[in-house]
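Can anyone check this?
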Amino acid sequence: FLSENPALARRCQQEGIIFIGPSAEVMLTMGDKIKAREAMKKAGIPVVPGTEGSISDVKEALKLIRE
């Protein structure tokens, strides 16, 4: 959907068109699960328990699954 495309929001802003929706920066942040989680925690919004960052290898993933 174009309405979920950060490039559209940015282009509208550049052209002086009012885009009804989140800014391109917000879309990019919320589109990245790690950045979105960090933003929510920083804002004091509860998040589902999980890792604080990305999982770098299979051994780490298996360890987390078993916990």
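Reply from J.R.: I decoded it. DSSP finds four helices and no strands in the chain.
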